[in-house]
Amino acid sequence: MDTLHELTELFRAFPGVGPRQAKRFVHHLLLRGEDAENLSSLALKLRKNVTRCELCRRFFAKDLPLARAGGAQAGGAFKKCRICRDEKRDKSALLVVARDIDLEAVEKSGSFRGYYFVLGGTIPILDTQPEKRVALKELLARVEKSAAEGLKEIVLALSANPEGEHTAEIVAYALETLSKKYNIKLSVLGRGLSTGTELEYCDAETLKSALKNRQ
Ligand SMILES: [Zn+2]
């Protein structure tokens, strides 16, 4: 495979990018050498400077200036994100989302004060190995740990489309034993979300009402 083809294939693997668009990206980089250089150096930095939070599994920049304020690991980097380090949040509630971008939407709406868990994706309807698609094992470990710290409710906040609903069902099924064992309530976002709604595109008011009307 030549470089042109290889890079086109790489772009094609990006979410929402088709073959024509992938070719356009490559062409853009051919015309703008400085963009090509920036892209490669930023992509390398991304791997070096961004890490996954050991609690909620979202990605965060580990070299934030905040790291100097205390609580940092050796080398000035955190293992937990800003939200998970915040002791003032509500330990009784855990909100489960598919992706980082969904967590950001809920956080921005200001309607949730508990902690989060990011599944890392959704489960396609005919998929036979859900544990390979989302962090189910890690979620169970997290719930087990949080139960000892007063967790009382898990809110499944998945998009209101077939794949989101399917994912919610599988996650709820996986959590059943632990939720009974520790008497943790399982709820899902309420009807504020109309069918087909992707969580990341929800406005603050809609998210607020969906959270309020969770069932
Ligand atoms: Zn976190």
Q: How would you sum up this structure in a few lines?
A:
With 215 residues, the protein is of the alpha/beta class. The protein is built from nine helices and six strands; from the N terminus they run H-H-H-E-E-H-E-H-E-H-H-E-H-E-H.
Describe what you observe in this structure:
By secondary structure, the protein is of the alpha/beta class. The protein has helices at 3-12, 19-31, 33-49, 82-85, 100-109, 130-133, 136-147, 162-181, 204-212; strands at residues 50-52, 59-61, 93-97, 115-118, 153-156, 185-188. It has three domains: 3-48, RecR Domain 1 (Helicase, Ruva Protein, domain 3), CATH 1.10.8.420; 49-88, no CATH class; 89-212, 3-Layer(aba) Sandwich (Dna Topoisomerase Vi A Subunit, Chain: A, domain 2), CATH 3.40.1360.10. It has nine helices and six strands. Mean pLDDT is 88; it is low at 66-70. Helix 2 packs across helix 3 and helix 7 runs parallel beside helix 8. The strands form two sheets. The chain has a four-stranded parallel beta sheet. A two-stranded antiparallel sheet has the order 1-2. 25% of the residues are buried. The protein is 46% helix and 11% strand. It binds zinc ion. Zinc ion (ZN) is lined by residues 53, 55-56, 58, 80-81, 83-84.
